[in-house]
Amino acid sequence: MNAAGVLQVTLPREAERSDIEILLATATRAEGVRPTPHQMADARVAEGGEDYFFRNVENEIRTPDDLAIWARLVERQAACLGRQEYARAFETLREEAAGVAG
Description:
By secondary structure, the chain is mainly α.
């Protein structure tokens, strides 16, 4: 990366013969203070963005904060907890929460 923040990548000499189809890059420097699990859960409820969370759980894309987010959603009795399309994620999270509590 150069001083302006532009990613600079040297492609193979014969790029057209390479196995590379696409290159993805993302910034890795944290910006500000990381939100707490409660703040993340509250934002999901406020914005109706729970689909992202539950689909990640269903597809085993997990974070260390998942159970805390789940607990906050339950605590707030979030409307999304009544949605049948998330039943698999609910089951996974309930089982994990019971395992931690027991």
